[in-house]
Design a protein that fits this description.
- This protein has helices at about 25-30, 45-60, 70-85, 150-160, 205-210, 255-270, and strands spanning about 5-10, 10-15, 35-40, 45, 90-95, 110-115, 125-135, 165-170, 175-180, 180-185, 190-195, 215, 230-235, 240-245, 250.
- It is α+β, with helices and mostly antiparallel strands and about 270 residues long.
- The chain has two domains: about 5-115, D-amino Acid Aminotransferase, Chain A, domain 1 (2-Layer Sandwich), CATH 3.30.470.10; about 125-270, D-amino Acid Aminotransferase, subunit A, domain 2 (D-amino Acid Aminotransferase, Chain A, domain 2).
- The strands form two sheets. Strands 7, 8, 9, 10, 11, 12, 13, 14 and 15 form a nine-stranded mixed sheet that branches. It has a six-stranded antiparallel sheet with strand order 2-1-6-5-3-4.
- Strand 13 and strand 14 form a beta hairpin.
- The longest helix is centred in the N-terminal third of the chain and has 15 residues, at about 70-85.
- The protein is globular.
- The chain starts with a strand and ends with a helix.
- GO terms for molecular function: catalytic activity.
Length: about 270
């Protein structure tokens, strides 16, 4: 594989170069945040929204002395030019850097921006429900934490059982989100998505759909899956993706409300 550049604390380096100290808190503790966005036609989509969400996570975890949003934006465009990128997946990762103990973070935060291929979204996906929950009371609820082992384990379970992703409920039994995506149900022609009170991530595509008054937030229960005529999921790198089944229940895809959501996001992504 040909090495590309990544942006590491202000410098462009080969993405095969060592980048993380063994004592980095992101590596040792999962203490850090990240954000992933799509680059299309050489332009990051919804960049301001992604940087705002990333900054909220940095502030929540009290990571000091990180690059400003303007510096991160400039670094991303520098990386796009250096790698000759047209379409790609970009990830911005920020950790407190190395530290001698969980109480001592050290003085030099780590910021890495890397790119990888942007894969085409599947025509539809299958979801399963699981017994594990999203802890809406967690200090990490609602941020893209690098502490991602729980999601990885649940996603592996779904894949091992023949599904593409898993639906999580919060600790009170409300629907929350999928491991890598926000969740939407079409009930009586209305598109509804779990509220942030359920501990779900404030996804950027979710935010856009709500701002456009195309989707509304609502407390949803697993029983509402039987009332839905369409279901779809969203993420920044795949956009809107129809769901053709949840467990043993099938849904026609793509439904007309899902198609309208797909078209809206495609249009707004190109602005």
């Amino acid at each position: 594989m040909t090495a590309q550049s990544m942006w590491l604390n202000g410098e462009l380096v080969d993405d095969v170069s060592p980048a993380v100290f063994a004592t980095d808190h992101g590596f040792l503790l999962g203490d850090g945040v990240f954000d992933t966005l799509a680059i299309r036609n050489g332009t990051p989509t919804f960049l301001d929204r992604h940087l705002r969400r990333l900054r909220a996570g940095v502030d929540r975890l009290l990571i000091a002395d990180t690059p400003t949003d303007e510096e991160l934006s400039a670094a991303l465009f520098q990386l796009i030019e250096a790698n000759g990128i047209d379409d790609a997946r970009a990830r911005i990762t920020i950790t407190p850097g190395p530290g001698s103990s969980p109480r001592d973070r050290g003085a030099q935060p780590l910021t890495v921006i890397s790119t990888s291929p942007l894969h085409q979204a599947p025509p539809s996906v299958s979801l399963c429900t699981v017994q594990w929950t999203r802890n809406e009371r967690s200090p990490l609820a609602g941020i893209k934490s690098t502490s991602w082992g729980e999601n990885a384990a649940i996603l592996r379970y779904a894949l091992a059982n023949g599904f593409d992703n898993a639906i999580l409920c919060d600790s009170s039994g409300r629907l929350s989100e999928c491991t890598t995506s926000n969740l939407y149900l079409v009930i009586n022609e209305r598109i509804v998505t779990p509220s942030l009170d359920s501990g779900c991530l404030p996804g950027v595509i979710r935010e856009v759909l709500i701002d456009e008054q195309f989707v509304s937030e609502q407390d949803l229960m697993p029983s509402d899956l039987a009332l839905a005529t369409e279901i779809f999921i969203t993420s920044s790198t795949t956009g809107v993706v129809p769901v053709h089944c949840v467990d043993e229940r099938s849904y026609a895809t793509p439904g007309h409300r899902t198609v309208a959501a797909i078209e809206m996001i495609k249009r707004l992504s190109s602005l």
